[in-house]
Prior knowledge:
InterPro entries: GmhA/DiaA, Phosphoheptose_Isoase, SIS_dom, SIS_dom_sf, SIS_GmhA/DiaA_subfam. This protein is of the alpha/beta class.
Amino acid sequence: MSERxxxxxxxxxxxxxxxxxxxxxxxxxxxxxxxxxxxxxVMIHALLSDRKILSCGNGGSAADAQHFSSELxxxxxxxxxxxxxxxLTTDASTVTSIANDHHFEEIFARQxxxxxxxxxxxxxxxxxxxxxxxxxxxxxxxxxNMICVALNGRDGGDLAxxxxxxDINICVAGPSTARIQEIHLMAIHCLCDLxxxxxxxQD
Length: 203
Ligand SMILES: O=C(CO)[C@@H](O)[C@H](O)[C@H](O)[C@H](O)COP(=O)(O)O
Ligand SMILES: [Zn+2]
């Protein structure tokens, strides 16, 4: 392949990813919008009741959990006082010691049991719905009478089956982890926008 042909092939793959991303977003927006709105209402109710939001996930979803908590703790698009949120993915000492002394599946659940109170919210993020440590975190949140908002994917996996009627399942159907993650990030930005809109009346 010439350099020119290689560049054309790469550009064509990028265009394919953009097309696939647009199609996936368009395909799920009608179904997800009400779920995202319900998830935001649960979070807004918790924040107005002086409760907090914990978040967790693995890999790209760990980054999403931190992305969300930083936008609450610091700010999203508008200036406002920080809001209480904790990503359970960030403290390497805590995560490694729980994994080492107990089990990797416990890394989030143990923190939920230590930090969670009734009325707090857990944002549980998984593209497969099958990460055992996220599922354990949801079970621990239920023990603490917390509500869970799941950012889920594919068929919802085991995570979907343990959610209660009070919980919210924002589930992106589709086979690609990358595309699911991209919509999860869109959902996170919608949640932040709705929280600010409700709390501050921002446009
Ligand atoms: O970001 C990616 C792939 O895009 C990976 O790091 C991915 O997040 C990891 O494989 C996770 O362990 C997958 O976990 P989950 O989304 O199925 O719960
Ligand atoms: Zn952001």
